[in-house]
C-alpha cells in the first residue's frame, strides 16, 4: 500500500509543492530493506567502538517526556523548537552538527552516514511521484543510551516533513511520543528493533513530540523538502 496516492499526482517540479502528509505514520515495512539496514548497522558499529562519549544519565528523563510535562509547557505557552537552541532538553549524544552544543565531530561517521543518506533519498520514490525534485536533508544523528531522552519540542524553527530511521538493541524499551495537533491526544509509539517514522512539522498545527529510551537507541533524521528550498 502506498502511503501517498499517486492520483492525483504530485505538482509539477516548477511548483515545488508537496502533497498532503499525515500528522504521523509508521512506514517501516514499506521503506526498510536489507541494504538500508546494513548501512545503518555499519555506522552503529563504528559508534559503539568509540563509545557514547559525553553521555550523562538523567534520573528525571522519564518525567521530562511525560504528558504532565507537556501540559506544563502548553499552559506556559512555551516555545521549544529543538536542541540547537535549547540543548538542555536532551542528554542524547549528537554527532556531526557544529550548531549543536557538545556534538561529536567524526569524519569517519559522516562518510559512512552518506550511504544511509543516499539510500533514504532513493526510497522516496516509494511514496512520491516526483522524488527527484525532493531533498532528504540530514537533520539528526543521535545515540540514546539507557536513560537517554529528548524532551518535548516542536522543530518549528525548521518546518517540513521529518523522517527518522531508528534501530534499538531491544524492542519495547524505548518510544516516540507525540501530541496530535488536531485532537490534542498524546500517543506513545513503542519502538521495535527497527522503525521508520514520518511526521509533519507545520507552523499552523505544532506537533509536540519527545523520545525516551531504556536501551541503546540510534536514530538518523531527515527533513524532506522540495529541492528549490535547499
Distance between the termini: 29 Å
Mean pLDDT: 88
Lateral arrangement of strands in the main beta sheet:
1-8-5-10-3-2
Radius of gyration: 17 Å
Secondary-structure blueprint of this entry?
Blueprint: E1 24-26, H1 28-31, H2 34-50, H3 61-64, H4 67-75, E2 93-94, H5 107-122, E3 134-144, E4 148-153, E5 160-168, E6 174-179, E7 186-190, E8 194-201, E9 209-213, E10 217-226
Antiparallel strand pairs: 1-8, 2-3, 3-10, 4-9, 5-8, 5-10, 6-7, 6-9
Helix pairs in contact: 2-5
Task: Summarize this entry quickly.
The protein is 22% helix and 28% strand.
Structure notes:
There is one protein chain. With 230 residues, the protein is α+β, with helices and mostly antiparallel strands. Helix content is 22%, strand content 28%. It has five helices and ten strands. It has a six-stranded antiparallel sheet. Strands 4-9-6-7 form a four-stranded antiparallel sheet. A hairpin with a 6-residue loop joins strand 6 (174-179) and strand 7 (186-190). The model is unreliable at 1-19 (pLDDT under 50).
Notable traits:
disordered N terminus, 10 strands, alpha+beta, globular, 6-stranded antiparallel beta sheet
